[in-house]
């Protein structure tokens, strides 16, 4: 088959062609075959990172905004139009998707059911449209060895879900949602999806004045149990993931952030069945950093996968920008490495090009930039961990709990009376003399030094 995209195969150049990304058309930091060892396991960079292309953005996103029409120019368009009602168009896009992954050297992809094919008049018709595209995807996967990182189901685009899918007050809509997920799980099983994601698009509420929140949460928890039951029944063993996000589209999303979602899982005894899929821009909207969310998920043993994108510090909504922040990528990759990578997850570009980047080649540049910044962050974080940079800081800062009264407390040997007796023996001055500076300015400068030195030595090596 002749080439569909007018773009060369993207290879690792390591800065060899200079600093201009637009001219070089290659990776500076993403070297797919270079090997790295984490926790005694040696794998290639490609197998650690597991980058994934998101069908909904890369193939379907037209870059419409509330003030204007879509700007995207895509080679599969007919007369400049992406006909989302056409099955012919839907099938054609699969060819472009696989060539796109091949040229980038990306091995994984992710999709919602509704990304792939038009809906019909009944669920049966919708499923039959979907299955035709899935047939083609399955065949392409066999031919190319590309893998499905995760699939999911859109319980938020169709108007029937205006008040939720699994938390809707309307039983027929709930039944539709369950039937839809059933089919989606069958696709996960068929395509050997490593994980299965639930993002609760409309699972939240606008006002307490018409919402029975307890009943809605009970329903969604039961919905998840039924989903697991069905996965077990058909022998689908992929990892279930919940994706936290606050305040968009509903005013109060039930899965606001990592800690809220963990509380939900524990309340309903679901934490053995689920891990979390985190997203950079969602973290910002929740008032956190991406690395904060990654840290709390990792420490709970629930870091499953990452949607690699970022937001804008000035914008209060989800803009799904391709990642370009080396500082953030480094700190997120620190958590990733501490987690031993993401065995059943990866780095999925839930990211879209800016509205003014309307050329098809921008899809390549955007993914290349995202892969390079995360590969760079990975290299820096590997070195930080090799040097125990943060580990030493943590260890020293809490050293007073390694001996004396601190150790007694940690070993359950100190009561409040013991603390009182201990403190009554000391002056306030003596107590404050044990308090040390946090040295955050020096630590942050050292982190920057890691970035300069690791990346400087990698570039143009
Ligand atoms: C929405 C979002 C979704 C999920 C999958 O903000 O992140 O694309 O990743 O439904
Ligand atoms: Co996402």
TrEMBL record:
UniProt-listed SUPFAM superfamilies: Xylose isomerase-like (SSF51658)
Binding positions for Mg(2+) 1 per the UniProt entry: 243, 279, 307, 350
Subcellular location: Cytoplasm
Protein name: Xylose isomerase
PROSITE patterns in the record: XYLOSE_ISOMERASE (PS51415)
Keyword set, alphabetical order: Carbohydrate metabolism, Cytoplasm, Isomerase, Magnesium, Metal-binding, Xylose metabolism
EC code(s) of this entry: 5.3.1.5
Similarity comment: family membership: Belongs to the xylose isomerase family.
Primary location group: cytoplasm
């Amino acid at each position: 088959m002749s080439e569909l995209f007018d773009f060369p195969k993207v290879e690792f150049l390591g800065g060899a062609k200079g600093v201009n990304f637009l001219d070089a058309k290659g990776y500076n930091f993403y070297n797919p075959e270079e090997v790295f060892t984490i926790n005694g396991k040696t794998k290639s960079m490609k197998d650690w990172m597991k980058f994934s292309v998101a069908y909904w953005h890369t193939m379907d996103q037209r870059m419409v905004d509330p003030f204007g029409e879509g700007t995207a120019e895509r080679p599969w368009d007919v007369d400049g139009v992406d006909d989302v009602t056409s099955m012919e168009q839907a099938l054609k896009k699969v060819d472009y998707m696989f060539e796109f992954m091949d040229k980038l050297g990306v091995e994984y992809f992710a999709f919602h059911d509704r990304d792939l094919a038009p809906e019909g008049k009944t669920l049966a018709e919708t499923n039959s449209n979907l299955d035709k595209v899935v047939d083609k995807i399955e065949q392409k996967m066999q031919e190319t060895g590309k893998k499905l990182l995760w699939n999911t189901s859109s319980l938020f685009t169709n108007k029937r879900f205006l008040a939720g899918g699994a938390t809707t007050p309307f039983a027929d809509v709930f039944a539709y949602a369950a039937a839809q997920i059933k089919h989606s799980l069958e696709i996960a099983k068929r395509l050997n999806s490593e994980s299965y994601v639930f993002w609760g698009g409309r699972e939240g509420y606008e006002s307490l004045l018409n919402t029975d929140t307890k009943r809605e949460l009970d329903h969604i928890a039961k919905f998840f149990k039924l989903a697991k039951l069905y996965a077990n029944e058909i022998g689908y063993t992929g990892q279930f993931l919940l994706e936290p996000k606050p305040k968009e589209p509903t005013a109060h999303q039930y899965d606001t952030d990592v800690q809220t979602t963990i509380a939900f899982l524990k309340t309903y005894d679901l934490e053995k069945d689920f891990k979390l899929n985190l997203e950079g821009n969602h973290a910002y909207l929740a008032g956190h950093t991406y690395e904060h969310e990654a840290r709390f998920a990792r420490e709970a043993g629930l870091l499953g996968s990452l949607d690699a994108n970022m937001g804008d510090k000035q914008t209060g909504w989800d803009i799904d920008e391709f990642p370009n922040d080396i500082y953030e990528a480094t700190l997120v990759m620190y958590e990733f490495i501490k987690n031993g990578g993401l065995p059943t997850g990866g780095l999925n570009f839930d990211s879209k090009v800016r509205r003014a980047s309307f050329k098809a080649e921008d899809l390549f540049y955007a993914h290349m930039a995202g892969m390079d910044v995360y590969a760079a962050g990975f290299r820096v974080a590997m070195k930080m961990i090799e040097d125990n940079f943060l580990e030493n800081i943590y260890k020293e800062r809490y050293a007073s709990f390694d001996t004396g009264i601190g150790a007694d407390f940690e070993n359950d040997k100190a009561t409040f009376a013991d603390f009182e007796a201990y403190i009554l023996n000391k002056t306030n001055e003596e107590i404050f003399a044990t308090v040390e500076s946090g040295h955050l300015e020096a630590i942050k400068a050292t982190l920057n030094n890691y970035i300069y030195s690791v990346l400087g030595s990698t570039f143009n090596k």
